[in-house]
Amino acid sequence: MLGATDLAASGQSGAEIPRRPLGRTGLEVSALGIGGYHLGSANSDAEATQIVNEALDAGVNFFDNAWEYHQGLSEERLGRALRGRRDRAVVMTKVCTHGRHRNIAMRQLEESLTRLQTDHLDVWQIHEVIYENDPDLIFAPNGAAEALLEARRQGKVRFLGFTGHKDPSIHLKMLSHNFPFDTVQMPLNCLDATFRSFESNVLPEVNRRGMAALGMKSLGGSGELVSEGAVVVTMGLRYAMSLPVAVTISGIDSLSVLHQNLAVARGFQPFSAVEMQAIRDACRSGASDGHMELFKTTKKYDGDLGREMHGFPSSAELPV
Amino acid sequence: MPNSSDAIPLRQFGRHNVRISAIGFGGHHLGDAPDEPAAVRLVRQAVDGGVTFFDNCWEYHRGKTEAWMGAGLEGVRDRVFLMTKVCTHGRDKALALRMLDESLHRLRTDHLDLWQIHGVCFENDPALFIRKGGAAEALEQAKKQGKVRFVGFTGHKDPSIHLKMLATGFPFDSVQMPLNPFDANFHSFEQEVLPELNRRGIAALGMKPICGHGTPVQKGVLTGEEALRYAMSLPVAATITGIDKPEALRQALKVAQGFVPLEPSAMQALRDRCRQYAADGRFELYKLSLQFDNPEARLAHGFPLDMQQVEVREMLRMTENSGHPYPPTQ
To answer: What are the Cα distances from residue B86, in Å, to A129, B94, B138, B222, B253?
Structure first.
C-alpha cells in the first residue's frame, strides 16, 4: 500500500473547494459532489440534512440522486435539506426506466421533482445503463431518450446525461447515438485505470465531445479499495479528483466522512502526471481481476429494479 | 432424426488419433444424485449407452463427484476417456500436482486421459497460469510423468480470456467453453473462440448446452432437446451435459444415440428465437455474475463467496480450505 504522507498530501484547510465548468452548460460545479445513495444510508434525517448544509457551507454545490435510491428516501432527504437553498445547488437526479417506455420516465420525473421540492432539475440522467441492450432500448421509439428531450422542452430539466458502472463498451454504445448528452457519469478510480477502464476508453471521448464527465466510485463503491489495502482514502479520492472530470461524486453517509472528504477538496491540488502514473502502477496487480471493482465484475451494485426489468434474479436470489 | 445406427457417434479428439463420444457426462451434476449407489448406476448406464467421455473436477462438491465417478467406473475405466480439472485459480504448480494426486486417488485410476485447468474466468488468470512456477508447469510435468495423456483448460466467462490463454502459446490439446444458442449472440464463444480452436486443431468441448441450470428451458424459450441438439451440431469434439438423474440420462441418450446434426437453417432459427433473450445475458449468468464461479476461484482471487452455493455450504461444513493466495504479477 502506498503511504498517506507524501503522495496523499491533500487540500489546505480554510482554502476554497475548486469549481470547474460542467462541460459546455455554462454551470460551474464544485470538484467534490455529494452522492445521493449514501444520503439515504445516513443514520437519520437530521444527519442527512446536516451533511447537505455543511457541504453547501463549505462550497460544495453538486448534489447527485436517483429516483430509485432507497425507495425515494434519498430524494426526500435532499429536498428537505435544500429547502430555502435550492438556488445555490446544482441538483441532479436520475430516471430509472431500465429500458421501459418514455411515459414511465415522465411519471418518475414528476415524482422526483415533488420529492426534491423543486420545479426543475439542473441535470437529469438515465440511471444504470449497465445491460448490453440498454442503449437499444433507450433509443428505441418511445424510449427514455425521447423523455429526456421532452422534459427539457417543458423546462423541467436543464441538462441531460446518463450513468452506468459496468463496462466502457456500453457507455461508448450510448455515445455512438450522438444524442446531445451534457453529462456522462462513470466509475473512475486508480484501479479502473488498468481494468476495463473508463478512464482510458470513455473519459477522453467524453471530453473530446465537450460533455461534462462525472466521476463516481472513487473508492470502489463501498470503500473496497481502502478495506482491501489498495490505497488510503485521501489518495484514492485525490486520484479520482485529479482526472479531467467536472466533479467527483462521493458517497457520504456521515458527518465524519464529510469532514474527511472536505479536507481533501479544500484547496485541492491535483496530482502530477508522474504521481498519477506511480499510483496506477502500484495498483495494477490488485486491479487485474476486478475483485475490488465489484460493480464491474459482479451483480452486487446492480439495482433490483433493473434486474427485474432485464429478467435477472433479484439480489436475494443471486447474491454476490 | 436418428441415423442408420443408433450408437452415439464418436468424434476425433482434436489433432490426436483418439475418438470420444459426441456427448460427455458432466461431473458436477453427478453430485446431485441422491447417493453413491444411484450415482454409480447412472455412470454404468451411461457407459452401457455408449458414452465414453466423462467430465469431472477436483472441486466439484468438494471431491464427492470424483469419488462417485471413480466408484462407477470401477472395472470399466479402460472403456472411457476420463477428464478432470485442476483448481489452482492462479496458484502454483505444487498445489496443482497435489490436486492431481488427490483426483487420481478419488477416481481410482493411475492416469487421466485429459487434465484441464478449471475455471479460467478472471482477466489475470492467463498471466498467472503461464508465470514461472505456475500451473502450466504442472501440466507439462504431469504429462511427462505419464499421469495425464492430454491437457486443456476451461472457463465460462469471456471469449477474450480464452483467447488470452491461447495467446500464451501453451500447447493445449483441448479447450472447453459454454456453447448454446444464447451464446451465439452474446459475448460469443461460438463466434470468437470455436473457429480459432478448429483452425489450431485443438479439441473443442462444449458445455452449458441449456445454460447451466436450464433456466431458459424452464421459462419455455426452448426445449432441453433443442438446446442439446444445437450444441452438438456445432463443430465440437463433444458436448458435456450434466447428468443428475435417470431422466436426464435418458434424454441425453435419446438425443445422442444416432445423432444427426441440425441443418444450418434450423440452427439459425434457434439463434433467432433466442436472440432477444441473449441481448442482456439474462440466461447466461455465468458470463455476468459470480454464480458459477467456484469458491476456490473466488478465494484465490479475493472475491466474496456466494453463501447459497453448494460447494460453499459443503466447505463451511468441512472447513478444509486448501487455498493460499497467489502472488502479485508484474
So the answer is: 37, 12, 10, 33, 28
What residues of chain B, 238 to 277, have a C-beta less than 8 Å from chain A?
277
Question: CA dihedral defined by B289, B293, B296, B302, rounded to 10 degrees?
Answer: -20
Neighbours of B2 (CB within 10 A): 10
Helix axes A102-116, A73-81, angle to 10 degrees: 40
Please give the C-alpha separations between residue A244 and each of A96, A185, A240, B74, in angstroms, as whole numbers: 27, 13, 9, 65
CA distance B194 to B190: 5
State the pLDDT at residue B173.
98
Could you say which of B122, B306, B329 has the minimum Cβ distance to residue A320?
B306
**Nearest CB to B282 within list A136, A311, A320:** A311
Give chain B positions within 8 Å (CB) of A195.
123
* A288 and chain B in contact, CB less than 8 A: yes
What DSSP character marks residue A125? E
- The per-residue pLDDT for range A189-237, each reduced to its tens digit, is 999 999 999 999 999 999 999 999 999 999 999 999 999 999 999 999 9
Q: Which three cell numbers stand for residue B122?
A: 478472471
Tell whether the model's pLDDT for residue B319 goes beyond 80.
Answer: no
pLDDT tens digits, residue range B10-56?
999 999 999 999 999 999 999 999 999 999 999 999 999 999 999 99
Instruction: Tabulate helix, strand, coil % of chain B (nearest 5).
Output: 45, 15, 40
ipTM exceeding cut-off 0.85 for this assembly = yes
- Chain B nearest-CA residue for A296: B288
Would you call A294 an interface residue with chain B, using a CB distance cutoff of 8 Å? yes
Backbone φ, ψ for residue A267 (5° rounding): 60, 30
Long-range contacts of A134-139 (CB under 8 A, 24+ apart): A134/A98, A134/A99, A134/A164, A134/A170, A134/A174, A134/B280, A135/A170, A135/A173, A135/A174, A135/A176, A135/A177, A136/B279, A137/A99, A137/A100, A138/A97, A138/A99, A138/A162, A138/A174, A139/A177, A139/A179
What is the three-class DSSP state of B242? strand
Report whether B174 contacts B237 (CB < 8 A): yes
Residues of B within 8 A of A319 (CB-CB) are: 306-308
What's the pLDDT tens digit per position in A234-254?
Answer: 999 999 999 999 999 999 999
